[in-house]
Write a structure and sequence with these properties.
It is a single chain. By secondary structure, this protein is α/β, with parallel strands linked by helices. It has two domains: 159 residues, Aspartate Aminotransferase, domain 1, CATH 3.90.1150.10; 238 residues, 3-Layer(aba) Sandwich (Aspartate Aminotransferase, domain 2), CATH 3.40.640. It is built from 16 helices and 16 strands. A seven-stranded mixed β-sheet has the order 4-12-11-10-9-5-6, with helices on both faces.
């Protein structure tokens, strides 16, 4: 593996092989990460990286496009089939790009959007002041009504929408572990004459596999997404339009030439491969197991009396208040678990009194370990090892022992090359 790089560039070879070993011997619990198949990796590393393909299939600015068109059309048609969309744009380089393109497609500078507060589970691109997009649009926010159950304050959301008259009512999240009431989002949007949009980046795979409800069934106008995470594809973005050809044309124009130049055709080919995998019947079994594994981990943390934001999980991720429950800041918890061979991320919790770089919480999930073949028993054991590591964090012997068991679990469930 990496034979040509090994001969040509020792430094990069060392980095690549180091990551191979890290992923092979450790357990990945960051809920926004996953393992792609060898077929996806082959497509992403393919000859299509050579080709400029500005424009869209059948309407390119350069010649020599028959095979790039073939790959992009395959990605588009498979995405439409997966999510029940009439239109799809597979060119965004990332989920952030997909969101930004969607904003510029549907809004004018100065228009207002209503999205989830970052500290209550939202994403940076949903209107956090640190992002440049807030220089163009006005963001107002909604929050959870009850942090212990995850219930969204829909009455306050409606009142905010009536007061500020947003042009987009935006659902979706980055660190929220419950299901949203999709009908209420759509109803509020219609009540104030706004577009209903949802960022499904975290749950796209669950939707595609039938393990979570499809927002289009409730009348959402647009869905944006990443193509990795639970969807198990290459890192990239996706925009889906339920019905409106007018919106689809605006989205296409916003992506290119509005925000991006040449699409990454090798990544689009990899998206097509991943979408094809998600259309396979096995993907339904996989996504159902993601939820079962998350519930198994939830049970262990509940038994260990660790507070979980929203009281637990209804999807693939858990947000735990380790500072309030165990007296360990999120940053330290992340570092301790790294030493034990378990990778997750520190994360702010609702109404956090600590800083974002050293918050009270940790965020973890089950997509990647489920890809490795973990079931409920193994997932519960991972949760037990996490608690043992956090509670015994000052004892190097305990962490070394846990690391050995983690490595054994990883070796017993190797990352497979094929998911079909």
């Amino acid at each position: 593996m990496y034979d040509f790089i090994k001969k040509q560039d020792k430094e990069v070879y060392t980095a690549l092989w180091g990551e191979e070993e890290r992923e092979r011997d450790g357990l990945e619990l960051i809920p926004s990460e996953n393992y792609v198949s060898k077929a996806v990796r082959e497509a992403q590393g393919s000859i299509l990286t050579n080709k400029y393909s500005e424009g869209y299939p059948g309407k390119r600015y350069y010649g020599g496009q028959p095979f790039t068109d073939m790959a992009e059309v395959a990605a588009i048609e498979r995405a439409k089939k997966l999510f029940g969309a009439r239109f799809a744009n597979v060119q965004p380089h990332s989920g952030a790009n997909a969101n930004i393109a969607m904003y510029f497609a549907l809004l004018n500078p100065g228009d207002t959007l209503l999205g989830m507060d970052l500290s209550h589970g939202g994403h940076l691109t949903h209107g956090h002041p640190v992002t440049y997009i807030t220089k163009f649009f006005n963001f107002v926010r909604y929050q959870m009504k009850n942090v212990e159950t995850g219930e969204i304050d829909y009455d306050e959301m409606r009142a905010t929408a009536k007061k500020h008259k947003p042009k987009i009512v935006l659902a979706g999240f980055s660190a929220y572990s419950r299901e949203l009431d999709y009908q209420k989002f759509v109803d509020i949007a219609r009540e104030v004459g706004a577009y209903s949009v949802i960022d499904i980046a975290h749950i796209a795979g669950l939707i595609a596999g039938g393990a979570a409800k499809n927002p289009f069934d409730f009348g959402f106008d647009v869905m944006t997404s990443t193509t990795h995470k639970t969807l198990r594809g290459p890192r990239g973005g996706l925009i889906l339009i339920r019905e409106s050809e007018e919106i689809a044309k605006k989205v296409d124009k916003a992506v290119f030439p509005g925000l991006q130049g040449g699409p990454l055709m090798h990544v689009i080919a990899a998206k097509a491969v991943a979408f094809g995998e998600a259309l396979h019947p096995n993907f339904k079994t996989y996504t159902a197991q993601i939820l079962k594994n998350a519930k198994a981990m939830e049970a262990v943390f509940r038994a260990g009396k660790v507070r979980m934001i929203a009281g637990g999980t209804s999807n693939h991720l858990i947000l735990a208040d380790v500072f309030g429950s165990l007296g360990i800041p999120g940053k330290e918890a992340e570092e301790v678990l790294d030493r034990a061979g378990i990778t997750l991320n520190k994360n702010v919790i609702a109404n956090d009194t600590r800083s974002p770089m050293d918050p009270s919480g940790i965020r973890f999930g089950t997509p990647a370990i489920t890809t490795r073949g973990f079931k409920e028993k193994e997932s519960a054991r991972v949760a037990e090892l996490m608690l043992m590591a956090l509670q015994g964090r000052a004892d190097k012997v305990i962490l070394t022992t846990i690391n050995s068991e983690v490595k054994a679990l990883a070796q017993a469930h190797p990352i497979t090359d094929s998911f079909v």
